[in-house]
Specification:
It is a single chain. The chain has helices at about 10-20, 35-45, 55-60, 70-85, 100-110, 125-135, 170-175, 180-195, 260, 265-285, 300-315, 320-340; strands at about 1-5, 25-30, 50, 65, 85-90, 115, 140-150, 195-205, 215-220, 230-235, 245-250, 255-260. The longest helix is centred in the last third of the chain and has 21 residues, at about 320-340. About 40% of the residues are buried. Helix 5 packs antiparallel against helix 12 and helix 8 crosses helix 12 (about 320-340). The model has no long low-confidence stretch (mean pLDDT about 95). It has twelve helices and twelve strands. The chain has two domains: about 1-115, NAD(P)-binding Rossmann-like Domain (Rossmann fold), CATH 3.40.50.720; about 120-265, Dihydrodipicolinate Reductase, domain 2 (2-Layer Sandwich), CATH 3.30.360. It is an alpha/beta fold.
Length: about 350
């Protein structure tokens, strides 16, 4: 049985917590969060809680820990967990800066623990299908790749207002805005697909005059595959989920494919079909596809399951720390280039 802990019971932490309860041969031992209201979910499942992650790490015998903390708290928590010999699953971004990411990498290697960043976009069903077509050569040599992700970010829609935590809009505490928050996912996807990405052009947006960028347009080139990649991200959309403005488009010498080709045309219809499918699986004794009705949220379960399986079977982690350092290097280059343009 893999003994798991969780640090940070905010929105993402609560999702990780619920996902962990459905993993095979995994026990959620304890969680930590300084806010009493955030600990209530764990308490309702009779899971031990702490108001300080240092106490959790020093008190519990864990195999691994999920870290779902604000960006500015990650490095210290990772360091303390690594010193306890605990393997790590950490929300993206890996760090606030390349320098911080390099310190984390050095610490993890020094303590000889394993660490993986939760880049769940790789495990969207539509992305997996697109990647399979690419690997099978069914798109040919890709010449242009575009990736878009425009949502409201931390800026809640007027119909569902919610306060924005101060750290989100602090360059020092968050490390950046929409580029680091959303662009991290897209750059990771393109680097995973093509590798060796180098910055060609970038422009950060400040539509709302925030301390951090609320949008970014980036052009990258793959030295390995000679693919020209364009990334567009923004926090300026006023849509509400399940409307989700995300896609990856690949234009190759054989044809064109997009994640839009494989994603459900209607998430509402998909939810009904997925619910019916799981009902049939339940009555026939087949494994359920957890969170499949949400389509996109299923990826969070998939990546955590893969992390735990790798630890249990002592196999290679599906997302390497080196890959995430490459993503941080690209983002660092974008921020430095943008500063020189000011």
């Amino acid at each position: 049985m893999l003994k798991l802990g969780l640090i940070g019971m905010g929105k993402m932490g609560q999702l990780h917590f619920l996902n962990s309860l459905h993993l095979k041969n995994v026990e959620m031992v304890a969680v930590a969060d300084k806010l009493k209201k955030n600990r209530k979910m764990a308490e309702s499942y009779n899971v031990k809680t702490y108001d300080d992650y240092a106490r959790l790490l020093s008190s519990e015998d864990l195999d691994a820990v999920i870290i779902s903390l604000p960006n500015f708290l990650r490095e210290d928590c990772i360091s303390q967990a690594a010193e306890r010999g605990v393997d790590l699953f950490v929300d993206k971004p890996l760090a606030r800066s390349l320098a911080e990411a390099q310190r984390i990498d050095a610490k993890v290697r020094k303590e000889n623990v394993r660490m993986m960043t939760g880049v769940n976009y790789r495990y969207y069903d539509s992305v997996q299908k697109l990647k399979s077509m690419l690997d099978e050569g069914r798109i040919g040599d890709v010449v242009y790749a575009t990736a878009d992700l425009v949502i409201n970010g931390p800026l809640g829609h007027g119909r569902v207002p919610s306060p924005v935590p101060e750290w989100w809009l602090s360059k020092e505490q968050a490390g950046g805005g929409a580029l680091l928050d959303l662009g991290y996912h897209l750059i990771d996807l393109l680097n995973w697909m093509f590798g060796d990405l180098k910055l060609e052009y970038c422009k950060l947006g400040h539509r709302f005059q925030l301390p951090v960028e609320d949008g970014a347009m980036v052009v990258l080139n793959s030295g390995k595959s000679n693919v020209n990649c364009c990334v567009n991200v923004g926090w300026f959309s006023k849509t509400i989920f399940p409307n989700f403005n995300f896609r990856v488009n690949l234009h190759g010498t054989v044809g064109y494919k997009s994640t839009d080709t494989f994603a459900p045309k209607s998430l509402h219809v998909h939810a009904v079909k997925a619910g019916a499918g799981n009902f049939l699986r339940r009555i026939t004794g087949k494994p359920l596809k957890y969170l499949w009705y949400t389509y996109y949220y299923h990826s969070f379960y998939c990546i955590l399951d893969l992390f735990c399986n790798a630890l249990q079977n002592d196999t290679e982690l599906p997302v390497s720390l080196n890959e995430e350092l490459e993503v941080m290097k690209i983002i660092d280059d974008i921020y430095k280039h943008s500063e020189r343009l000011v």
